[in-house]
Amino acid sequence: VKANCASGTVCTDYVASAAQNITLSAPSNALTPSVVVAVPTSVSNCGNMTIDASQSTGHGSRPWRSVVWAVRASTVGADTFGLQTLLSRLGTRISQFVVFPPAAYAVPNVEYTLTLTVTNFMGRSS
């Protein structure tokens, strides 16, 4: 590192600092993500369903380090694979909401619970 030379200044005496290693770590009060997932309370089998996690915060203007969706059905044996796969394909792009026909991914009259866990670049999760 060397001081910036201002215009009209003799800078030949400015020397660079000696090389050194510096370890950077996350602060003890690092930003913790806040997950917000907006979904309708019920949907028609003929319409579209929207899952919107775009209001989630705490990524520090950087991509999420990880995004994990979990899908659970209230009925034992109800298929969750299609919906789980659809959400997982988003990767870390939760700023995009998902619109899909529920008939293609969900069983009628079954309640689904969606859980979203995100981790930011500082390793904090919510």
What secondary-structure arrangement, pairings included, does this model have?
Elements: E1 49-51, E2 66-73, H1 81-88, E3 98-100, H2 102-105, E4 112-119
What would you call the structural class? Answer: mainly beta
Question: What is the alpha-carbon Rg in Å?
Answer: 24 Å
Number of strands: 4
Q: Largest sheet, if any?
A: 2 strands, antiparallel
Residue windows where pLDDT falls under 50 for at least 5 positions: none
Distance between the termini: 38 Å
Instruction: Identify the overall geometry.
Output: elongated
Average residue-wise pLDDT: 91
Separate helix tally? 2
Offer a quick outline of the entry:
10% of the residues lie in helices and 17% in strands. By secondary structure, it is mainly beta. The two termini are 38 Å apart.
Task: Report on this structure.
By secondary structure, this protein is mainly β. The chain has a domain at 49-119. It has two helices and four strands; from the N terminus they run ββαβαβ. It has helices spanning 81-88, 102-105, and strands spanning 49-51, 66-73, 98-100, 112-119. The strands form two sheets. The chain has a two-stranded antiparallel sheet with strand order 1-3. Helices cover 10% and strands 17% of the residues. The chain is elongated.
